Amino acid sequence: MFILALMALTARNSVKADGISSIQWEFNTLDGWVYEHQDDAPVSQCSANAGNLYIYTRANTRDRQKMHTKDKIYTFGRYSWRTYISNIAAGEQTSIGSWIYCDEQHEIDFEVGPGTSAIREQYGIQEGELVACMTSQGFPYVSGYTAITPGWHVFTIELKDVRGSYEVHWLIDGEEKQKQSLRYGDEKAFYIYCSVENLSFIGDFIPVHRNYGMFDWVSFTNHEDATSIQNISFPEQTVIYNLQGCKVDNPQKGELYIINNKKMIY
Question: For residue 202, is pLDDT > 90?
Answer without folding.
Answer: yes
